[in-house]
Design goal:
Tetracycline Repressor, domain 2; mainly alpha
Length: 193
């Protein structure tokens, strides 16, 4: 029977490498080297690199879904503060420290491995659906919005998509500029202040 610690060590190394280098640039050899194993030892736990990748992204998406729920449920204040804090917390978690989970989630959501695209997108769709469900509750409680809730959620998700793409593929300062400018238009567009 495989030791759980070995499996977790392999998954942790794989998560880090997949997040930093991407699926294509990460080899099983790299992962094995990272945990002090021989490449063949990984096959005792996983059928192949695809099997390991799916195992890693499933856990990452599950954990990030929980994290998003915690952020959206625990922030104090009105809808605007909650939504801003959510975006800024995602940015902070992505840019500060070693957050392989969030990096691999965003990588899979926006640039999945081609041959695993369907499975990756399925996890991403579920992740974003959970966020939409939480956002719906926030917008339903808001007294300021002057559009229907679905429109507000869709507009917010569109802003979030653009900001995340800026963060992932451009840089933090571009994210900050886009966030500042797009937020003003977004909030004025959905509110009756």
């Amino acid at each position: 029977m495989a030791k759980a610690s070995s499996i977790e060590e392999i998954k942790n190394a794989a998560r880090y490498l997949f997040a930093e280098k991407g699926y294509e640039a990460t080899s099983l050899y790299d992962i094995a080297q990272n945990v002090g194993l021989r490449k063949q030892s990984i096959y005792a736990h996983f059928k192949n690199k695809d099997d390991l990748f799916i195992s890693v992204i499933k856990k990452a998406f599950d954990e990030e879904t929980e994290n998003a729920a915690k952020i959206l449920k625990n922030v104090e204040g009105n809808a605007e503060n909650i939504l801003k804090e959510f975006i800024l917390t995602l940015k902070m978690r992505y840019t500060q420290g070693n957050n392989s989970n969030l990096k691999i989630v965003f990588r899979c959501a926006y640039l999945p491995p081609e041959h695993l695209k369907e499975q990756s997108i399925q996890y991403a769709d579920n992740f974003f659906s959970q966020i939409k469900s939480l956002l719906t509750k926030i917008f339903e409680r808001s007294l300021k919005i002057n559009v229907d809730v679905d429109t507000a959620v869709t507009a917010f998700m569109t802003i979030l998509d653009g900001l995340l793409i800026s963060l992932i593929y451009i840089n933090e300062s571009r994210f900050d500029e886009k966030f500042k400018n797009s937020w003003i238009i977004f909030w004025k567009g959905i509110c009756s202040e």
